Amino acid sequence: MYYPYFVTYMLIGFAVSLAVFLWAVKNGQFSDQQRARFLPLVGDAEEKPVEATRRHRYEIYGLGFLVFAGLMATVAVLVFSLMAPT
């Protein structure tokens, strides 16, 4: 049976999603909901260009690593489930 692989995969995904949600709540990502509905009406001329910093580069590398790790976990689950004896 390969159900434990899928259950484990789903539990890991749930745990990561919960961690990201709690991080967003802690950092105030949802604090100003009234402002969010007016964002499409604001012109882009007011915003200054974002400067690339070292921290920004590390965030991009981290995001790329997370995407790669998620894809490899998906491949591993599929391979293990197809190779499992019936």
Describe the structure.
The protein is built from 3 helices and no strands. The protein has 86 residues and is mainly α. It has a domain at 1-26 and 57-86. Helix content is 67%, strand content 0%.
> Stretches where pLDDT falls below 50 for ≥5 residues?
none
| Straight-line distance between termini | 6 Å
Tell me the structural class: mainly alpha
Helix share of residues? 55-70%
Number of contiguous helices? 3
Q: Strand percentage, roughly?
A: under 5%
Main beta sheet: none
Query: Tally of extended strands?
Result: 0
Briefly, what is this?
With 86 residues, the protein is mainly alpha-helical. It has three helices and no strands. The protein has a domain at 1-26 and 57-86.
Give the topology.
Elements lengths: L2 H24 L6 H4 L17 H30 L3
Helix pairs in contact: 1-3
What brief labels describe this structure?
single chain; about 90 residues; mainly alpha; 3 helices; about 65% helix; elongated
